[in-house]
Design brief:
Layout: H1 29-44, H2 52-71, H3 77-82, E1 109-110, E2 112-119, E3 125-133, E4 148-153, E5 159-162, E6 164-169, E7 176-183, H4 193-208, E8 215-221, E9 225-232, H5 235-243, H6 253-264, E10 270-277, H7 288-298, E11 302-307, H8 313-322, E12 327-330, H9 335-351, E13 354-359, E14 370-376, E15 382-390, H10 420-423, H11 428-440, H12 449-456, H13 467-477, H14 480-495
Parallel strand pairs: 1-15, 7-8, 7-10, 10-11, 11-12
Antiparallel strand pairs: 2-3, 3-13, 4-5, 4-14, 6-13, 8-9, 14-15
Helix pairs in contact: 1-2, 4-5, 4-9, 6-7, 11-14
Length: 505
């Protein structure tokens, strides 16, 4: 049978509709009356048990009221006055359960997680830079370390649990370390590609350094790799390095990426290498596999931007993907604008990461591969997981002799006069190195750590004198070419307000 009020299906003998709660028809009136008697029994219990006539009066009143209820045309007084006909409406009741509802029984919102990089420089403490996004692509608010679990698996298949200690959005925590790798091969002359690339890089640098703590390094390459400017937050120094890049020579892309990865690995925190090229690798000493291996060991992603229509897209895509980065195509009439957008996209993507910190409990050699499984546990409203393989190598040399880096900034500084126009093309960092390179050739030691570290990588350098000893005899050690070149470089550095002149050397 069906309820005359809402149309819902009811069982024979039911006194009330389970959907709308109203009393059913007179066909089940006996049950309704019985129910009503039960309801009133409580009130009549105050009377004597022998007051039988009073009880039958109450029952009669209930029966009459029930009959009038069903004969009345509307559900309330206003309906009766208007004479309106009411259409029954089905009301959906929640499904009842014998078990009480709990937080774990509620459906979880799916999370998409992606590990961009791994910082294991302080191993066994490991930091995963992880993209955590909800269904609309945003990082959920209120993420807590207690919502996540970590399980590491070693090469034998043994599993080890670790406690997640921190989950912190990168945008409110860390600064970024970015190595910009610039192709300066001869093909970059075509269609003003180099000018566009310089404008884009400078624009990106100006925006990047506005965030306190962000630093960048400028690396360029042709047949050789050039460290145009070490990591700094100074836009002036970075733009000076970008301006100094001039197209010539071949394309040693793998050497440049290997160098940049080594250099960037010296920094702690969020790290990324961004390179752009218009041509195909043709002159590196390093292999493709060496670059991929180093990227995986250091946990530093490599992003590649292809410039122009003559790049080998498939090989560059494969390289970027293997290095946990991505490939971008910069094919636009406005190349500078296209590059600026790509740079900003990569930067924004990195800034949207979360820093997930845990301490590894996985025993064994620190050169052995580990696979870490990061999961969002049942304690929160989200669900998701991601696995990532890394090798906790913490002692990677900052320089490798297999890379074709230049031995001298100014090879002819002892045998020719360099004109002011020639020297003005150099970055402030290069001028600083070239000027002190003249002293280093004669065995001078240095007070500045950056110079000590730099010349220690040169096979031709041997310290013979302390800075004080050399300065006392410098006039007898330097020839006329060297003295003149030192003077010209110093004057250029002064005119450009080089910060390197402010430090003792």
């Amino acid at each position: 049978m069906f309820c005359p009020h809402c149309g819902a299906s009811v069982k024979d003998g039911d006194a009330f509709c389970s959907s709308c709660g109203k009393a059913l028809s007179s066909a089940s009136g006996g049950n309704a009356s019985a129910s009503g008697g039960a309801a009133t029994g409580k009130a009549s219990s105050k009377k004597s048990i022998g007051d039988i006539p009073t009880i039958w009066v109450v029952v009669a009143i209930v029966a009459i009221a029930t009959a009038l209820y069903f004969l009345w045309p509307g559900d309330d007084a206003s309906d009766a006055d208007s004479g309106a006909v009411q259409t029954p409406t089905t009301v959906q009741q929640p499904t009842t359960s014998s078990q009480p509802a709990t937080a774990s029984s509620e459906p979880k919102s799916p999370l998409t997680m992606f590990v961009s990089q791994v910082d294991n420089s302080a191993y066994p403490q490991v930091t995963l830079y992880t993209k955590i996004a909800d269904q609309v692509g945003s990082t959920p608010s209120g993420l807590d370390a207690s919502q996540f679990t970590v399980t590491e698996t070693d090469s034998s298949g043994s599993q080890y649990a670790a406690t997640v200690e921190q989950v912190v959005p990168l945008a409110v925590g860390d600064a970024m370390n970015i190595n910009l790798v610039v192709d300066q091969s001869g093909s970059m002359r075509a269609r003003s590609k180099m000018d566009s690339a310089k404008k884009a890089a400078s624009s990106f640098v100006d925006e990047m350094v506005k965030t306190q703590g962000n630093v960048a390094e400028i690396t360029s390459f042709n047949d050789y790799v050039y460290n145009r400017q070490p990591f700094t937050s100074s836009a002036a120094l970075l733009n000076s390095a970008i301006d100094a890049v001039s197209p010539t020579g071949e394309t040693a892309l793998y050497d440049a990426l290997y160098w940049a990865l080594q250099r960037t690995n010296l920094k702690s925190g969020s790290r990324v290498v961004i390179a752009f090229t218009d041509g195909e690798e043709n002159s590196s000493n390093c292999s493709l596999n060496a670059v991929i291996t180093l990227s995986q060991q250091t946990g530093i992603p490599v992003y590649i931007v292809g410039v122009g229509g003559d790049v080998n897209r498939s090989s560059l895509q494969s390289l970027a993907s293997s290095c946990n980065g991505a490939y971008y195509d910069a094919v636009s009439d406005d190349l500078a604008q296209a590059l600026r957008q790509i740079y900003q996209s990569i930067y924004d993507d990195q800034r949207s990461m979360c820093r997930v910190v845990f301490t590894s409990t996985c025993p064994g050699s620190t050169s052995a591969t580990r696979t870490v499984l990061l999961s969002c546990s049942d304690s929160g409203p989200f669900a998701g997981q991601i696995s990532h393989t890394y090798v906790p190598v913490t002692s990677i040399s900052s320089y490798d002799t297999s890379v074709s880096s230049q031995d001298y900034v100014l090879p002819g500084s002892a045998s020719k006069y360099y004109s002011r126009s020639e020297l003005e093309k150099m970055s402030l960092w290069e001028l600083y190195l070239a000027r002190n390179e003249i002293f280093a050739r004669h065995g001078r030691g240095f007070k500045n750590q950056d110079l000590t570290d730099y010349f220690a990588t040169k096979r031709w350098y041997t310290q013979t004198y302390t800075p004080e000893e050399f300065d006392a005899i410098s006039s007898s050690q330097l020839n006329d070419y060297e003295l003149k070149n030192v003077q010209t470089m110093y004057e250029i550095e002064q005119s450009r307000n080089s910060p390197y002149l402010e430090t003792a050397e």
